[in-house]
Amino acid sequence: DADVTQTPRNRITKTGKRIMLECSQTKGHDRMYWYRQDPGLGLQLIYYSFDVKDINKGEISDGYSVSRQAQAKFSLSLESAIPNQTALYFCATSDLPRKTGTVREGEQFFGPGTRLTVL
Amino acid sequence: GEDVEQSLFLSVREGDSSVINCTYTDSSSTYLYWYKQEPGAGLQLLTYIFSNMDMKQDQRLTVLLNKKDKHLSLRIADTQTGDSAIYFCAETVYGNKLVFGAGTILRVKS
């Protein structure tokens, strides 16, 4: 079974609709992230959460909100979808940096992505 | 601010070496990463280098780091068609966050 799962994998919606993308992980990581990927722009960080009570805005948080329901779950919402939010969305997790060096600082594990189309 | 730049496209013949280049801005980054994204999939960590190293070799992959110029490169020896993918350079910044480059599309011609 995949360690980081995302649902749905594909979604087509209309302008103005509210959309929720969900992410679940079985890695036991405290840190979770939401990115969007646009061609030629790489990955841009939308929101990140270092634990259940700690949620932070990323580079492009406008138009998005998140909820960290549990350590294993981090959902991304588009309150009122617009066409320029059409993109590929990725969830990722990471563990706390450890002094033993067995966990590399910053190493993130990605879900398979959700392709969202807003018409 | 943080910025990571990569060339957008590279085309090579099967069996040749591929070199993907990246420049980054945060000199305090502890690790620098190369992620690979195959069509229709998420990103997977390919290799990484610790900032106090100049070179790291891992089978067909060689990572070179020039800290003075903030330049990172990934060399893939004997490139195969299965290496066709998008390759992302990433640097760590404060708080365990990653900043990604735009990605380099590697196309391998048989």
Secondary-structure content class of chain A: mainly beta
Overall pLDDT of chain A: 90
Overall geometry of chain B comes to globular
- Our estimate of the beta-strand percent of chain B is over 45%
The secondary-structure element order of chain B is: EEEEEEEEEEE
Number of helices of chain B: 0
Describe this structure in words.
The complex is a heterodimer of chains A (119) and B (110). With 119 residues, chain A is mostly beta strands. Helices cover 0% and strands 55% of the residues of chain A. Chain A has no helices and eleven strands. Chain A has strands at 4-7, 10-13, 19-25, 31-38, 42-51, 54-57, 64-70, 73-78, 87-94, 109-110, 114-118. In chain A, strands 2, 4, 5, 6, 9, 10 and 11 form a seven-stranded mixed sheet that branches. In chain A, strand 7 (64-70) and strand 8 (73-78) form a beta hairpin. The radius of gyration of chain A is 14 Å and the shape is globular. The model of chain A has no long low-confidence stretch (mean pLDDT 90). With 110 residues, chain B is mainly beta. Chain B has strands at 5-6, 9-13, 18-23, 31-37, 43-50, 55-58, 61-66, 71-76, 85-93, 97-100, 104-109. In chain B, the strands form two sheets. In chain B, strands 2, 4, 5, 9, 10 and 11 form a six-stranded mixed sheet that branches. A five-stranded antiparallel sheet of chain B has the order 1-3-8-7-6, with no helix packed on it. Chain B is globular and about 40 Å long. Chain B starts with a strand and ends with a strand.
